[in-house]
């Protein structure tokens, strides 16, 4: 950590330090894996609830029309679980992927570590080296409605201005909201859905109002992050895809 504290600044202010580039791509791979696996998991049960409990027999807060399971569709004809007697009733989903989604759950839990570990390292290093103060946080008097409006109007122009010597005000606000709000919320709400974690730290489940509430908050936080990823990718393409990718991979200035 001492090396990070004494890490010299890049030759030009637009360069990304090596630890930022490594964390960026580790989190990117992890997030794409989490998005795909999370979508498959949600397709299996596209109903969101509020509180501690929720299932097919309880009212949903709302349903997502993203699979054949929407509004209890996508099931074969119910039949007796046992060949004789009046035992439990079973049914099979008509969509094979939803019968075999354990791979998605395993990938989701594994990829989550790829978000938590480099994300935590990024937060610690960002605070310790002053990276957030220099690059991400708006300066004194910078965050004003007028400047925010002008920066937003610039981003809506049909052509993008060349990348400047640092992040614009809107970029700083967006990155700060993602790093300090959306990502912590998605991680903590994910942990609040773990019975092992909430057994040791029940306060985490109470913070989100229960298991199902944590699942719903987790979904909305993930949607915010996906929307950010889409806008971020569009802006990278508009402002010079090759130059921006080179700056975030092999380093150098934009």
TrEMBL record:
> Subcellular localization, per the record?
Cell membrane
The residues that cross the membrane are 22-42, 107-128, 174-197, 217-237
Domain Cytochrome b561 bacterial/Ni-hydrogenase as annotated: residue spans? 16-249
- What SUPFAM superfamilies is this protein classified in? Transmembrane di-heme cytochromes
Please name one Pfam family that this protein belongs to.
Ni_hydr_CYTB
- Gene3D superfamilies under this entry? Transmembrane di-heme cytochromes, Chain C (1.20.950.20)
Give the species. Answer: Urbifossiella limnaea
Stated membrane topology is:
Multi-pass membrane protein
The Gene Ontology biological process terms listed for this entry are: respiratory electron transport chain
Name-wise, this protein is Prokaryotic cytochrome b561
Entry annotated with the keyword Cell membrane: yes
Q: Could you tell me which PANTHER family the record lists for this protein?
A: CYTOCHROME YDHU-RELATED, NI/FE-HYDROGENASE 1 B-TYPE CYTOCHROME SUBUNIT
What are the UniProt keywords, alphabetically? Cell membrane, Membrane, Transmembrane, Transmembrane helix
Task: Identify the main location.
Answer: membrane
Q: Does the keyword Transferase apply?
A: no
- An example Gene Ontology CC term for this record: plasma membrane
Gene Ontology molecular functions: electron transfer activity; heme binding
